[in-house]
Each structure stands twice: as C-alpha cells, then as structure tokens.
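User: quick one, fold this
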Amino acid sequence: MKPILFLDVDGVLVGLQALNTLRGRELRLPYLQLKPLMGSFFQEARAHFDIVWATAWGEEANGLLPALWGFPVPLPQFSLPAIPVGGDKLDEILAYTKGRKDWLWIDDSVWPDQVRRLQEAGCTGNFIHVSSAVEAEILLDMTLQWLDERRPT
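Assistant:
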C-alpha cells in the first residue's frame, strides 16, 4: 500500500495569478496559472503515493488538473467550504487517515492551531509547509526525501 499524499492546489501546484478562464472554461476561482513542470511532479508523485486533493477546489481539481497532466481518472478529494470561511483540512486529513501514519500533507497555508494539533497528534513530520513560489523540482525533492526517511533500512 502506498502512502497518501494530500495536496493543496492554490500556491502549491498552481500560481496565484489573476486569470478568469482557461481554455474558455469559466473557473470558480478568480485565478489559475499552471506552474512550470508541475505535471512532471504530479506524475512522479503518483508513482509513489496515493494522491488526495486537500483543497477547496473540490471537483474542479478533478475536472481540470489530472486531464491537463494526462491523468483522466478522478482523484479523491475533500468537500471543503471556501478557505478562509471554513474547512479545516487537518480535521479532514486526520479523519481520512484513520490512525495511519504513512501520509504527507503539502500546503502553502497553515494556521497556528493546525501546527499545534499536528504536534499533539505526533504528526509534525507528516506536513511540509511550502512557499507559494515553490518550484516543481524542489517540491519533488522534498517529497521524495520525506519518503526515503520513512523507508525501512
């Protein structure tokens, strides 16, 4: 069984640039700019992890991103209200993992309360906080390093 990779979209996989449409399709979100080489990151990550969207995008993540990167099969996702109105991703992640320890959450936004709760749950090593300017190669290196550190020797 592969570890689970919970991926945020805004700021992690796509840039925070102002665009209203992509390929003429109206988006719920007011911006979208694919980061260079994130498709390659996504392909490599899928080889090592079961990916779950941890984003307020909901079905829009499945409706757009896997197809752009050559993965037509929908991925699991959470039903989160728009952030910051609500939708604590950590609650959803902990419920989804049901005590499993082989999961990683990558996000560019974390709240102090979430950091505290990660510490209390003994899961601080399961989270990578990235800058919204993170590049695909660095993201892949961090992800694979996390995986290597957990492989039995």
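User: anything notable?
Assistant: Strands lie at 4-7, 14-18, 21-22, 25-26, 31-34, 50-53, 103-107, 127-129.
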